[in-house]
Amino acid sequence: MNGRLSIDDLPFLFRRQVVDLVTFNDPTFLFRLRLVSKKWNYLVQTVLQHRSWTIQKRRLDFGLLKDMPTIPTTSKTLKGLATLVQEDEERYLPEPSSPYSWLNNPDYTSLREFLERPDPRVEKNVFFLHGTSGNGTTFLLKAIARQYSKDYHVVYMPATALSIAPDRNRLLSVFKEALSNTPCILIIDDADKLIFEYKSMNADEWFLQKGKFADLLTSVQKIKQLRIILTSNELTLFRTEFHQFLVNVQHIPFKPHKERLYILRKFTADLAFEEAIRVESLVKRLNGHVVKALYCVCRRAASLAIMRGSKTIWDEDIDQAIKYVSGTR
Protein backbone atom coordinates (compact mmCIF):
# COMPACT_ATOMS: atom_id res chain seq x y z
CA MET A 1 0.00 0.00 0.00
CA ASN A 2 3.06 2.25 0.42
CA GLY A 3 1.51 4.57 2.96
CA ARG A 4 -1.46 5.72 0.95
CA LEU A 5 -5.11 4.88 0.48
CA SER A 6 -7.23 5.92 -2.46
CA ILE A 7 -10.55 7.55 -1.70
CA ASP A 8 -12.00 5.28 -4.35
CA ASP A 9 -11.24 2.37 -2.01
CA LEU A 10 -13.68 3.61 0.63
CA PRO A 11 -16.91 2.05 -0.62
CA PHE A 12 -18.75 2.02 2.70
CA LEU A 13 -18.07 5.57 3.79
CA PHE A 14 -17.76 7.70 0.70
CA ARG A 15 -19.69 8.24 -2.51
CA ARG A 16 -17.92 10.82 -4.66
CA GLN A 17 -16.68 12.67 -1.56
CA VAL A 18 -20.11 12.35 0.07
CA VAL A 19 -20.19 10.69 3.48
CA ASP A 20 -22.51 7.71 3.58
CA LEU A 21 -23.74 6.96 7.09
CA VAL A 22 -25.14 3.48 6.48
CA THR A 23 -22.48 1.89 8.66
CA PHE A 24 -22.55 4.50 11.40
CA ASN A 25 -24.31 2.35 14.01
CA ASP A 26 -23.50 -1.02 12.51
CA PRO A 27 -22.02 -3.33 15.20
CA THR A 28 -20.23 -5.35 12.50
CA PHE A 29 -18.52 -2.24 11.15
CA LEU A 30 -14.91 -3.18 11.92
CA PHE A 31 -15.44 -6.75 10.81
CA ARG A 32 -16.89 -5.62 7.50
CA LEU A 33 -14.00 -3.25 6.95
CA ARG A 34 -11.53 -6.10 7.25
CA LEU A 35 -13.48 -8.06 4.67
CA VAL A 36 -13.45 -5.27 2.11
CA SER A 37 -9.74 -5.25 1.31
CA LYS A 38 -6.27 -5.44 2.78
CA LYS A 39 -6.06 -1.67 2.46
CA TRP A 40 -8.99 -1.27 4.81
CA ASN A 41 -7.41 -3.67 7.25
CA TYR A 42 -4.23 -1.59 7.11
CA LEU A 43 -6.18 1.58 7.82
CA VAL A 44 -8.03 0.05 10.77
CA GLN A 45 -4.83 -1.32 12.28
CA THR A 46 -3.01 1.97 11.75
CA VAL A 47 -5.72 3.81 13.63
CA LEU A 48 -6.01 1.38 16.51
CA GLN A 49 -2.26 0.89 16.93
CA HIS A 50 -1.42 4.57 16.99
CA ARG A 51 -0.01 5.31 20.44
CA SER A 52 -2.15 8.35 21.24
CA TRP A 53 -5.28 6.61 19.99
CA THR A 54 -4.47 3.47 21.98
CA ILE A 55 -4.41 5.56 25.15
CA GLN A 56 -7.74 7.07 24.21
CA LYS A 57 -9.21 3.67 23.44
CA ARG A 58 -8.08 2.25 26.76
CA ARG A 59 -9.64 5.14 28.59
CA LEU A 60 -12.92 4.55 26.81
CA ASP A 61 -12.84 0.80 27.37
CA PHE A 62 -11.64 0.56 30.93
CA GLY A 63 -11.90 3.97 32.57
CA LEU A 64 -15.61 3.54 33.13
CA LEU A 65 -15.58 -0.11 34.16
CA LYS A 66 -13.53 0.42 37.30
CA ASP A 67 -16.52 2.24 38.77
CA MET A 68 -18.94 -0.50 37.81
CA PRO A 69 -19.85 -3.70 39.65
CA THR A 70 -18.49 -7.00 38.40
CA ILE A 71 -21.78 -8.68 39.17
CA PRO A 72 -24.87 -8.37 36.98
CA THR A 73 -26.18 -4.84 37.18
CA THR A 74 -29.69 -4.01 38.29
CA SER A 75 -32.16 -1.30 37.47
CA LYS A 76 -31.09 0.44 40.69
CA THR A 77 -27.50 0.66 39.43
CA LEU A 78 -28.61 2.11 36.11
CA LYS A 79 -30.83 4.66 37.82
CA GLY A 80 -27.79 5.69 39.81
CA LEU A 81 -25.94 6.33 36.56
CA ALA A 82 -28.88 8.32 35.27
CA THR A 83 -28.76 10.46 38.41
CA LEU A 84 -25.12 11.20 37.72
CA VAL A 85 -26.00 12.32 34.22
CA GLN A 86 -28.80 14.51 35.55
CA GLU A 87 -26.41 16.20 37.96
CA ASP A 88 -24.13 16.94 35.03
CA GLU A 89 -26.95 18.68 33.20
CA GLU A 90 -27.44 21.00 36.16
CA ARG A 91 -23.92 22.34 35.65
CA TYR A 92 -25.25 24.25 32.66
CA LEU A 93 -28.16 25.94 34.39
CA PRO A 94 -28.18 29.63 33.48
CA GLU A 95 -28.57 30.99 37.01
CA PRO A 96 -25.55 33.22 37.80
CA SER A 97 -25.67 31.95 41.40
CA SER A 98 -24.52 28.51 40.25
CA PRO A 99 -20.72 28.07 40.32
CA TYR A 100 -21.10 25.87 37.24
CA SER A 101 -23.11 28.40 35.26
CA TRP A 102 -21.66 29.18 31.84
CA LEU A 103 -22.35 32.84 32.63
CA ASN A 104 -19.59 32.72 35.24
CA ASN A 105 -17.09 31.08 32.92
CA PRO A 106 -14.60 33.61 31.50
CA ASP A 107 -14.03 31.30 28.53
CA TYR A 108 -17.46 32.31 27.23
CA THR A 109 -17.03 36.07 27.56
CA SER A 110 -16.80 36.56 23.80
CA LEU A 111 -19.94 34.48 23.32
CA ARG A 112 -21.85 36.61 25.83
CA GLU A 113 -20.64 39.79 24.16
CA PHE A 114 -21.84 38.45 20.83
CA LEU A 115 -25.30 37.71 22.22
CA GLU A 116 -25.71 40.83 24.35
CA ARG A 117 -24.13 43.55 22.21
CA PRO A 118 -26.38 46.24 20.73
CA ASP A 119 -27.10 46.17 17.02
CA PRO A 120 -23.63 45.52 15.65
CA ARG A 121 -22.00 47.55 12.94
CA VAL A 122 -20.01 44.58 11.75
CA GLU A 123 -21.28 42.56 8.83
CA LYS A 124 -20.83 39.14 10.42
CA ASN A 125 -23.47 37.62 12.65
CA VAL A 126 -22.45 33.94 13.01
CA PHE A 127 -20.66 32.52 16.07
CA PHE A 128 -19.12 29.06 15.74
CA LEU A 129 -18.68 26.76 18.74
CA HIS A 130 -16.35 23.87 18.07
CA GLY A 131 -16.83 21.03 20.56
CA THR A 132 -16.18 17.33 20.95
CA SER A 133 -18.60 14.49 21.60
CA GLY A 134 -19.74 14.46 25.18
CA ASN A 135 -18.30 17.76 26.41
CA GLY A 136 -21.68 19.37 26.98
CA THR A 137 -22.07 21.56 23.90
CA THR A 138 -25.76 20.75 23.51
CA PHE A 139 -26.43 21.42 27.19
CA LEU A 140 -24.70 24.78 26.81
CA LEU A 141 -26.93 25.66 23.87
CA LYS A 142 -30.06 24.77 25.83
CA ALA A 143 -28.86 26.96 28.69
CA ILE A 144 -28.36 29.84 26.25
CA ALA A 145 -31.85 29.30 24.86
CA ARG A 146 -33.36 29.48 28.35
CA GLN A 147 -31.27 32.48 29.35
CA TYR A 148 -32.23 34.69 26.39
CA SER A 149 -35.74 33.46 25.63
CA LYS A 150 -37.28 36.58 27.25
CA ASP A 151 -35.36 39.05 25.10
CA TYR A 152 -35.07 37.06 21.88
CA HIS A 153 -37.11 34.69 19.84
CA VAL A 154 -34.97 31.53 19.96
CA VAL A 155 -35.00 28.97 17.15
CA TYR A 156 -33.16 25.74 17.99
CA MET A 157 -32.58 23.18 15.26
CA PRO A 158 -30.59 19.96 15.69
CA ALA A 159 -29.14 19.39 12.23
CA THR A 160 -29.02 15.64 12.87
CA ALA A 161 -32.67 15.43 11.91
CA LEU A 162 -31.86 16.81 8.48
CA SER A 163 -29.02 14.35 7.89
CA ILE A 164 -31.19 11.37 8.82
CA ALA A 165 -34.33 12.46 6.98
CA PRO A 166 -33.35 15.13 4.45
CA ASP A 167 -35.98 17.79 3.86
CA ARG A 168 -35.07 20.42 1.32
CA ASN A 169 -37.60 22.88 2.71
CA ARG A 170 -36.88 22.55 6.42
CA LEU A 171 -33.65 24.52 6.44
CA LEU A 172 -35.34 27.29 4.48
CA SER A 173 -38.32 27.34 6.86
CA VAL A 174 -36.00 27.61 9.88
CA PHE A 175 -34.36 30.72 8.45
CA LYS A 176 -37.78 32.11 7.51
CA GLU A 177 -39.01 31.68 11.09
CA ALA A 178 -35.90 33.43 12.41
CA LEU A 179 -36.25 36.39 10.03
CA SER A 180 -39.96 36.73 10.81
CA ASN A 181 -39.34 37.00 14.55
CA THR A 182 -36.43 39.38 15.05
CA PRO A 183 -34.64 39.97 17.31
CA CYS A 184 -33.81 36.31 17.10
CA ILE A 185 -31.12 33.83 18.08
CA LEU A 186 -30.90 30.96 15.59
CA ILE A 187 -29.07 27.91 16.94
CA ILE A 188 -28.06 25.08 14.59
CA ASP A 189 -26.55 22.21 16.55
CA ASP A 190 -24.21 19.80 14.72
CA ALA A 191 -24.14 22.13 11.73
CA ASP A 192 -21.51 20.01 9.97
CA LYS A 193 -24.26 17.50 9.19
CA LEU A 194 -25.83 20.07 6.91
CA ILE A 195 -22.74 20.52 4.79
CA PHE A 196 -20.54 17.51 5.37
CA GLU A 197 -22.59 14.51 6.45
CA TYR A 198 -25.68 15.11 4.39
CA LYS A 199 -27.04 11.59 4.02
CA SER A 200 -27.59 11.11 0.34
CA MET A 201 -26.30 8.68 -2.23
CA ASN A 202 -26.65 11.45 -4.78
CA ALA A 203 -23.66 13.81 -4.82
CA ASP A 204 -25.65 16.49 -6.62
CA GLU A 205 -28.15 16.67 -3.74
CA TRP A 206 -25.31 17.04 -1.25
CA PHE A 207 -23.70 19.91 -3.12
CA LEU A 208 -27.11 21.54 -3.47
CA GLN A 209 -27.63 21.38 0.29
CA LYS A 210 -24.14 22.73 0.95
CA GLY A 211 -24.66 25.58 -1.50
CA LYS A 212 -28.09 26.37 -0.07
CA PHE A 213 -26.65 26.73 3.42
CA ALA A 214 -23.94 29.10 2.20
CA ASP A 215 -26.48 31.14 0.25
CA LEU A 216 -28.71 31.47 3.30
CA LEU A 217 -25.83 32.66 5.47
CA THR A 218 -24.93 35.20 2.78
CA SER A 219 -28.48 36.50 2.54
CA VAL A 220 -28.77 37.18 6.29
CA GLN A 221 -25.19 38.37 6.81
CA LYS A 222 -26.10 42.04 7.36
CA ILE A 223 -29.28 41.57 9.39
CA LYS A 224 -28.29 43.09 12.73
CA GLN A 225 -31.14 41.68 14.80
CA LEU A 226 -30.31 38.09 13.90
CA ARG A 227 -27.59 36.20 15.73
CA ILE A 228 -26.66 32.71 14.58
CA ILE A 229 -24.81 30.09 16.63
CA LEU A 230 -23.41 27.06 14.84
CA THR A 231 -21.87 24.07 16.58
CA SER A 232 -19.87 21.22 15.14
CA ASN A 233 -17.29 18.58 16.01
CA GLU A 234 -15.81 19.05 12.55
CA LEU A 235 -13.72 22.16 11.95
CA THR A 236 -12.35 21.55 8.46
CA LEU A 237 -14.93 23.26 6.27
CA PHE A 238 -15.43 26.13 8.69
CA ARG A 239 -11.73 26.92 8.40
CA THR A 240 -12.13 27.41 4.69
CA GLU A 241 -15.16 28.55 2.74
CA PHE A 242 -17.49 29.23 5.70
CA HIS A 243 -15.00 31.30 7.63
CA GLN A 244 -16.16 34.44 5.84
CA PHE A 245 -19.40 34.39 7.83
CA LEU A 246 -17.95 33.92 11.31
CA VAL A 247 -17.52 36.54 14.01
CA ASN A 248 -15.52 34.07 16.05
CA VAL A 249 -14.52 30.41 16.24
CA GLN A 250 -14.40 29.19 19.82
CA HIS A 251 -13.06 25.78 20.75
CA ILE A 252 -14.71 24.11 23.74
CA PRO A 253 -11.95 22.18 25.55
CA PHE A 254 -12.15 18.42 25.69
CA LYS A 255 -13.14 17.18 29.15
CA PRO A 256 -12.69 13.47 29.86
CA HIS A 257 -15.37 13.36 32.54
CA LYS A 258 -17.80 14.87 30.07
CA GLU A 259 -17.18 12.09 27.60
CA ARG A 260 -17.57 9.55 30.36
CA LEU A 261 -20.97 11.00 31.18
CA TYR A 262 -21.78 11.05 27.50
CA ILE A 263 -21.20 7.30 27.37
CA LEU A 264 -23.29 6.78 30.50
CA ARG A 265 -26.05 8.81 28.91
CA LYS A 266 -26.00 6.49 25.92
CA PHE A 267 -26.21 3.49 28.22
CA THR A 268 -29.17 4.75 30.22
CA ALA A 269 -31.04 5.77 27.09
CA ASP A 270 -30.50 2.45 25.33
CA LEU A 271 -30.95 0.09 28.25
CA ALA A 272 -34.10 1.73 29.60
CA PHE A 273 -33.38 0.37 33.10
CA GLU A 274 -34.00 -3.25 32.20
CA GLU A 275 -32.98 -5.63 34.95
CA ALA A 276 -30.33 -8.33 34.68
CA ILE A 277 -28.22 -6.32 32.26
CA ARG A 278 -24.67 -7.62 32.56
CA VAL A 279 -21.51 -5.60 32.41
CA GLU A 280 -20.62 -7.35 29.16
CA SER A 281 -23.51 -5.55 27.52
CA LEU A 282 -22.11 -2.24 28.64
CA VAL A 283 -18.69 -3.13 27.23
CA LYS A 284 -20.31 -3.67 23.86
CA ARG A 285 -21.72 -0.15 24.06
CA LEU A 286 -18.28 1.19 24.85
CA ASN A 287 -16.79 -0.62 21.89
CA GLY A 288 -19.48 0.93 19.76
CA HIS A 289 -18.27 4.34 20.88
CA VAL A 290 -14.75 3.40 19.80
CA VAL A 291 -16.15 2.42 16.41
CA LYS A 292 -17.75 5.84 16.16
CA ALA A 293 -14.42 7.47 16.93
CA LEU A 294 -12.72 5.33 14.28
CA TYR A 295 -15.34 6.48 11.84
CA CYS A 296 -14.54 10.09 12.74
CA VAL A 297 -10.85 9.40 12.08
CA CYS A 298 -11.64 8.06 8.62
CA ARG A 299 -13.84 11.04 7.87
CA ARG A 300 -11.27 13.53 9.11
CA ALA A 301 -8.45 11.94 7.12
CA ALA A 302 -10.54 12.01 3.96
CA SER A 303 -11.49 15.65 4.48
CA LEU A 304 -7.81 16.59 4.79
CA ALA A 305 -7.10 14.85 1.50
CA ILE A 306 -10.06 16.53 -0.19
CA MET A 307 -8.93 19.97 1.00
CA ARG A 308 -5.61 19.39 -0.80
CA GLY A 309 -7.50 18.43 -3.92
CA SER A 310 -6.13 14.92 -3.62
CA LYS A 311 -7.86 11.61 -4.21
CA THR A 312 -5.37 9.83 -1.99
CA ILE A 313 -5.32 9.59 1.80
CA TRP A 314 -1.72 9.50 3.02
CA ASP A 315 -0.38 8.26 6.33
CA GLU A 316 0.17 11.88 7.36
CA ASP A 317 -3.56 12.52 6.93
CA ILE A 318 -4.40 9.57 9.15
CA ASP A 319 -1.89 10.65 11.80
CA GLN A 320 -3.30 14.18 11.88
CA ALA A 321 -6.84 12.84 12.02
CA ILE A 322 -6.02 10.57 14.96
CA LYS A 323 -4.43 13.42 16.88
CA TYR A 324 -7.42 15.63 16.14
CA VAL A 325 -10.04 13.10 17.26
CA SER A 326 -8.11 11.85 20.28
CA GLY A 327 -7.49 15.39 21.54
CA THR A 328 -3.69 15.14 21.56
CA ARG A 329 -3.15 18.38 19.70
UniProtKB/TrEMBL annotation:
Among SUPFAM superfamilies, the record links this protein to: P-loop containing nucleoside triphosphate hydrolases (SSF52540)
Q: Quick one: signal sequence residues?
A: none
List, for all copies, the residue spans of the domain called AAA+ ATPase. 123-251
SMART domains on file: AAA
Superkingdom field = Eukaryota
Q: Which GO terms describe its molecular function?
A: ATP binding; ATP hydrolysis activity
Instruction: Spell out the InterPro entries in the cross-references.
Output: AAA+_ATPase, AAA_ATPase_domain, ATPase_AAA_core, F-box_dom, P-loop_NTPase
Q: Pfam families from the xrefs?
A: AAA (PF00004), F-box (PF00646)
| Protein name stated in the entry | (pine wood nematode) hypothetical protein
The species this protein belongs to is: Bursaphelenchus xylophilus (Pinewood nematode worm)
